[in-house]
Amino acid sequence: MSAVTARVRVEPIVDPDSTAARAVRALRVAPDQYRYVGDTAFNLGDTLRDPMSEAIAVIADDAIVGFYRLDFAPNAVVGRSLGMPSVGLRAFVIDHRQQGRGYGRMAMNACCDDLRARHPGREVLVLTVNCINAPAISAYLKSGFIDTGELFHGGSAGPQHVMLQFLHPHTTT
Ligand SMILES: CC(C)(COP(=O)(O)OP(=O)(O)OC[C@H]1O[C@@H](n2cnc3c(N)ncnc32)[C@H](O)[C@@H]1OP(=O)(O)O)[C@@H](O)C(=O)NCCC(=O)NCCS
C-alpha cells in the first residue's frame, strides 16, 4: 500500500446537476468488480430518487474518489429490522485508480463520524459484502465493522457476509 497523506471527508449530494454529481458519475471500478457494486451512475440516480436514502461523495483533499448510499429504510440491506434504529450502507465504491491507498477505510471512518453528527439517533450501520470480495471485507474490518457470522443469500453474485458497526458503542450493553 502506498503512503497517503490525503484528508478524507464525506459530503451529501442533493443536486443531480452539481459538479459533485458529475464527478460521481465518472467513477469506475475494475471490470471484475462490477458484479459487487453495479454501475455508479445508475446507483447515484437511484439514490437521489429515493426519499429514504442519501447519496454521499467521498472526497480526498479536493477530489471526489468514491461514493456510497445511506439507506434509512427500516428493512434496508438485510430485509428485516435489526431491533434498533439502523442505517444501511450500499453501493460503496472507490474509483479503481484510487484503490489501495486507504481511502476505503478512511471513508468508512468518516461515514460513521458523519452519521453520529447528522443522525445521532441511528445506532448501527449495516452492510452486506460478498464472501469472495477480499479487499472490501478487509477495508470494512479495518474500519471497525464486525462480521455477524450471518450469511445473506439475497445478492446476485453469491452469498454475502452481514457486517455491523455500532455507532455509539459506549451506550450499548
Ligand atoms: C472495497 C473498496 C471500496 C475498498 O476501497 P480501498 O480504498 O481500495 O480500500 P483501502 O485502501 O482502504 O484498503 C483497506 C484494506 O483492504 C485491503 N485491501 C485493499 N485493496 C486490496 C486488494 N486489492 N487486495 C487485497 N486486500 C486489499 C488492505 O489490507 C487494506 O488495508 P491497509 O491499507 O491497512 O493495508 C474498493 O476496493 C472498491 O471500490 N471495490 C469495488 C466495489 C466494491 O467491491 N464495493 C464494496 C461492495 S460491498
UniProtKB/TrEMBL annotation:
<feature type="domain" description="N-acetyltransferase">
    <location>
        <begin position="11"/>
        <end position="169"/>
    </location>
</feature>
<protein>
    <submittedName>
        <fullName>GNAT family N-acetyltransferase</fullName>
    </submittedName>
</protein>
<dbReference type="GO" id="GO:0016747">
    <property type="term" value="F:acyltransferase activity, transferring groups other than amino-acyl groups"/>
</dbReference>
<dbReference type="InterPro" id="IPR016181">
    <property type="entry name" value="Acyl_CoA_acyltransferase"/>
</dbReference>
<dbReference type="Pfam" id="PF00583">
    <property type="entry name" value="Acetyltransf_1"/>
</dbReference>
<dbReference type="InterPro" id="IPR000182">
    <property type="entry name" value="GNAT_dom"/>
</dbReference>
<keyword id="KW-0808">Transferase</keyword>
